[in-house]
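pasting for ref
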Amino acid sequence: MGITQIKEWYNRFKDGHITVESEPRSGRPSTCRNDQVIAKVNVLVMRDFRVTIREIAEEVGISTFSAHSIMTEDLAMNRVAAKFVPKLLMAEQKELRFEVLQDMLDSTNRDPSFMNTIITGDKSWVYGYDPETKSQSSQWKHSTSPRPKKACQVHSYVKVMLTVFFNSHGVVHHEYAPQGQTITKEYYRDVLHRLHDAVRRKRPELWSTGN
């Protein structure tokens, strides 16, 4: 309970009042937050979840303060920003991923070492170089020595496509795509051939099993 409310009640009790309910006030009762208005606001929101407080107030004929109170108190809703996700999947894609993951989970339950046989990979654009940060370039100095200086640098304007394949023990194969190279199926087929050779050299225990 807030200090202000406690002080208000204390003064009421001191003056002889025995209730904490607000006393009736003269004047016209407010009608902007009755059931009918709340229902109209709810219909507007259900029709368009992006509707603004100002649009609600103009449509229903109430103040923006009343519209905000109805949204947050009567309808118990808050306005939030959309959350970014890598991609939005369709129902069929979600179902397929669930089936694949369930199959992997069953395989892991049958053989705890199953996950060690999996090699996965991904592609990402990377800068040709990253400038050294201030903390990375820090050094010791005496109190009388001048402070070292370094020029401000920006990221490299050159970006290259990095492809990395790895398993539970670390990186198996990585390579940078040549400048101007389009990631076509033919190029990716050649990448997989090079990965095939890397597995034979770097993961002989996996290669020998033929799994």
